[in-house]
Amino acid sequence: MRPSISFTAAAALLLAFATAGCSRSAPASTVEAAAAPVAVVAPAVRRDLNRTLSLAAELRPFQQVALYAKEAGYVQQIRVDVGDRVQTGELLATLEIPELRDQLAQATATAQADQQDVLRAAQDLDRAEAAANVAHLDASRLTEVSKAQPNLVARQEVDAAIGADQEAAAQVSADKSALAAAKSRVAAAQQAQNQVSTLLSYARITAPFAGIITARYADKGTLLQAGVNSRVQAEPLVQLSQNDLLRLVIPVPESDVARIHRGESVEVRVPALNRTFPGVVARFADQLDLDTRTMHTEVDVPNPTLAMVPGMYAYADLVLDQARAAVAIPVAALIRGTQPGTGTVLVVGADRHIQSRNVTTGLETADQVQVLSGIAPGERVVIAGQASLKAGQLVTPAAN
Questions:
Q1: Residue 297, SS3?
Q2: Tens digit of pLDDT per residue, the chain (400 long)?
Q3: Residue 76 maps to a domain
Q4: Are residues 361 and 341 in contact, defined by beta-carbon separation less than 8 angstroms?
Q5: Which of 1, 129, 187, 380 is most buried, most CB within 10 Å of its CB?
Q6: Is there a domain that residue 18 lies in?
Q7: Same domain for 222 and 277?
């Protein structure tokens, strides 16, 4: 047993010497590299950056109206119901208004009677003008004869002829006035007839624009009061909404008002549909609400398929600032400076050593920041644990 133990001890001793020799022969750089801390890095890349403002609101119809009766009457026929799509000018309902029909018949009869008066007055004027021509010729002849032969015609006869001429001329003037008065009565009667006809035309209730019937308040036989009568609580016939174009009314904060412009594209997200629709800034108040310090802004959202329904909650993503093909790094990589737009970034070079770079920054989003100077595309920047690293230090880069 003793020789065996000696052989084992000798082998262990040789192994220990060999291990020690290998350790002494390993290069120092390998040991340093093996002990280098891990640095989480990300590359600087070129990308389009957008700073957006997301505001929530309810979708509204582009226009919505409750249709009332202009004149009180009974619903004789109603042709639409809730959910029906109608076109501009389409007949929705017809009212029965007996009083207006009677007034129209009376106005028509009066206009016809006045027209007959005009015809009679015109005939009277024609007769008066004919008689006046005869009287004037008689008076002219007798006057000429009396001048040529003073004693041939009695002066009394000449005066009578002149008087008859003047009387006939006066009758012509009177008949002209009578004809003018008759024509005025005809015009007034026609005006009254047109007025009643216009009121009676309101018995046909039509769609002022294309849309969808969203509510119906009356049935056949319902008595609708005139919507212009403030003494009576009038009930509408139907409610009509234009839903193929919707409005999204959003309050833009004071700090972002200057960046809102008409015609700008807007992405409208509708969570209920899990979809995004294109919109456009169509109009804004151009002044602030003093209570909320926001500006009333409206986004028009086309809805040709009627996928969106008024009342749905939606988010409008407004692009406030934009940078195309910008050199961008993660916001976590930036160590902010004391002045706005400045900072420091730790860069891992090709030799795996840390470099400290001063950078100038531009547009910043929620997770990316634009670098205007100090970093080139493709360079790796440290995005975590910068406090434990320093310039010149050897690290082991690891992608995030």
A1: strand
A2: 344 443 344 344 334 434 444 444 445 455 555 578 899 999 999 999 988 889 999 999 999 999 999 888 999 999 999 999 999 999 999 999 888 888 888 888 888 888 898 898 889 888 888 888 988 888 887 788 777 777 777 777 777 878 887 888 888 888 888 889 988 988 998 898 898 888 888 999 999 999 999 999 999 999 988 877 655 678 899 999 999 999 999 999 998 998 899 999 999 999 999 999 999 999 999 999 999 999 999 999 999 999 999 999 999 998 888 889 999 999 999 999 889 999 999 999 999 999 999 999 999 888 999 999 999 999 999 999 888 999 999 999 998 7
A3: yes
A4: yes
A5: 380
A6: no
A7: no
CATH of the domain at 258: 2.40.30.170
Q: What's the CATH number where 217 sits?
A: 2.40.50.100
Q: Which amino acid is at 277?
A: F
CATH label of the domain that carries residue 366: 2.40.420.20
Place of tokens 């961008």: 328
Record the pTM: 0.64
Quick one: 342 exposed, middle or buried, by C-beta within 10 A (0-12, 13-18, 19+)?
middle
Domain span holding position 218: 69-96+203-236
- Which residue type is seen at 197? S
Side chain identity, residue 5:
I
Residue 204 β-bridge partners: 94
How far apart CA 25 and CA 22 sit, in angstroms, is: 5
